Amino acid sequence: MKDPKVIVMGAGAVGCFFGGMLARAGHDVTMIARPDHVEAIKRDGLYMDCLSFKEYVSVKATEQLNVIDQADLILFCVKSPDSGKTIELIKPYLKPDAIILSLQNGVDNCHRIRQLIDNPVYPAVVYVATAMAGPGHLKHHGRGELAIGGWEPERAHDSEIQTQLKSVSHLFEAAGVPCKVSADVRQDLWYKFLVNCCYNGISAIGQIQYGDMVAVESVRDLIDELGREVVAIARHEGIAMSDKDAKYVIDQIPKTMPTQKSSTGQDIARRKPTEIDYLNGLIVRKGKQYGIPAPANQAIYALVKMIEHYNT
Ligand SMILES: NC(=O)C1=CN([C@@H]2O[C@H](COP(=O)(O)OP(=O)(O)OC[C@H]3O[C@@H](n4cnc5c(N)ncnc54)[C@H](OP(=O)(O)O)[C@@H]3O)[C@@H](O)[C@H]2O)C=CC1
Ligand SMILES: CC(C)(CO)C(=O)C(=O)O
């Protein structure tokens, strides 16, 4: 992929970080964002307040969806409940070979997107801690690596897919973003999903950072219980998950991003609907379907839904 035109669809915390890194490396990037962000980015540039640098990065920004007709690569960064409607909005402008990279949490966004369009769609497993601190102002709290891959098992060895994935990976790597092509991206997605089920809801309910969360012993016990339930469901889904690896990915979060409040917590703070139906809510539904009890996930799900109900 030589000199691709990159569009960030939904330039918030994640879109501004990864799109911003590509723009900073000199790529042609356009952020599709809400008016307050567009105005600030056009005026001053995107302020990337990162752990390793603080810089105003020059990048294009617009509210207009028709710029999608130029895109070779779309970083799809809207929240999970917005996936379907956003795809319907951009569908009229999509080039047939434009690659859509979903940087969203959850395990079913690519499947839902792919039901609406024929374009190549790939998941990115995203380990980063970011938030929008104000219009055009990105605050980075830790990490920033990606794993991408082909998720449709029947097309796993397709050479065109592997070529596309390698070129996307090179693009990010050259811009300073570690990006591996995963041999089993479904497994990687479930490990990340495990992290989200363990941390996002508690952080949202308590409006609390991960480092402070795990200072409380009973919260650590709850995280363990949430994790056990998710691992049981994952195994039932045919995902190979070891207890040792699950514990490792869970333990890394407060160590590598202690000052972060989850994206679900950020939604609650902004009085927006959350992604909880696609996180702990999915575990609750699958638990009922498979007859696997998931009371801890049920409790987190119910509490976030209650807060959302009176908050939005
Ligand atoms: N924040 C984080 O650290 C991480 C987040 N993630 C995942 O990444 C995904 C994105 O999360 P995040 O970046 O935090 O979310 P944000 O809410 O910060 O960003 C999404 C942005 O897209 C905007 N948007 C939605 N539709 C449109 C549209 N039609 N036109 C213009 N702008 C639009 C939203 O505006 P509005 O709010 O007004 O709808 C919002 O500003 C989620 O799936 C999340 O779980 C993954 C890893 C880490
Ligand atoms: C990586 C993590 C846990 C960062 O907060 C996240 O994915 C989220 O907030 O949704």
From TrEMBL:
Reaction catalysed by this enzyme: (R)-pantoate + NADP(+) = 2-dehydropantoate + NADPH + H(+)
Any one GO BP annotation for this protein: pantothenate biosynthetic process
A GO molecular-function descriptor: 2-dehydropantoate 2-reductase activity
Start and end residues of each Ketopantoate reductase C-terminal domain: 184-308
Pathway: Cofactor biosynthesis; (R)-pantothenate biosynthesis; (R)-pantoate from 3-methyl-2-oxobutanoate: step 2/2
Family: Belongs to the ketopantoate reductase family.
Function: Catalyzes the NADPH-dependent reduction of ketopantoate into pantoic acid.
Protein name stated in the entry: 2-dehydropantoate 2-reductase
